[in-house]
Amino acid sequence: MRRDLGPGAPPDLGPTPVDPGPGDSFTFTLQLVGVHRESFDGRSRGIDLDGRISDETDDLGCNQEDWEDPLDGERGVDNTLALLAPTLEAALGMSLDEGVEAFGAAVDIRLIGVDGSRTDPGVALGVGGEPPRVVPMRGGRFQGTSDRGLEVWLTVAAVRLRGVGVDARLTASGTLTDVVVVGHFDIDDVVETVTATAPDIDPGLVRTTLEAVADLDPGGDGLCRSISAVYDAEVVSR
Question: The pTM is what?
Fold first, then answer.
């Protein structure tokens, strides 16, 4: 059931931790390797972070159209960075992916209580050392977020990606495929970090550019304060 979080609310951070029951456990380290871009048919991986299926008429969805997931056709995926990345790269004359991969941001995840069928209404997912939260697994695929923050390279500096989560598939052999890491950037964080790192960049221009595509955390002033992001990731250890 989708929840209307209301204006000014932060992204939905997932269910309350509970006991997932017996089963196998898996631990993986995921390293971000680049911005997840839209597919050739205009779809994107990721998670519905605000519990809404939004379009340009939805004020509570920041009047930004959500994506459709290419794996299962679910609508409501939040990934504004996919739209913003080409603009940033053109303005700065640099690849965001190169910076992300070189910076090497990584996060540990742990799955607990996974049964052999890889279909379970309640497995526990822990992100970045936080207490696990129970999420559903269907055909090995699972999604979940956290309160965890992670420093990720964005244009000219590392900025905190908040509410870090993961969307991936666990195979019968215990490996991870189709891995993406998700989260959101607070616009205030981005402006403050970029201005401190590159004082020649106009902070007003940075803010207006981000506010034009912000898709999370709507305020009473009609402006939204966060942008969603999805990153391709690789398993570097297990």
Answer: 0.89
